[in-house]
Design goal:
2 domains; 92 residues; three-stranded mixed beta sheet; YefM-like fold; alpha+beta
């Protein structure tokens, strides 16, 4: 599948949505939809979307961890384990 085929006018979605979905699933590549020559939407197969979603969620968690550490809301790993063990023993 050529890259030029993966950039389609938005009107193609209305005319032949099944073909666009088949192309996205078969290639596991995004289909970029344009309106008046400008990108307006992206069509992804579900596996690619889920992978992207998991990656995005992981990046947000890492960013939150960095922000917490920068703000002094972090503890050394050993202390974190000790706190967790105490809570588990108390049943909390």
């Amino acid at each position: 599948m050529t890259p030029s085929r993966q950039i389609r006018p938005l009107s193609d979605l209305g005319q032949d949505a099944r073909r666009l979905v088949r192309d996205a699933v078969a290639s596991r590549s995004p289909v970029y939809l344009t309106e008046r020559g400008r990108a307006t939407a992206v069509l992804l197969d579900i596996r690619s979307f889920e992978r992207l979603d998991r990656t995005s969620a992981m990046e947000m968690l890492v960013a939150q961890g960095v922000a917490d550490a920068d703000a002094g809301r972090a503890v050394p790993l050993r202390e974190a384990f000790q706190r967790t063990r105490r809570k588990l023993r108390r049943g909390a």
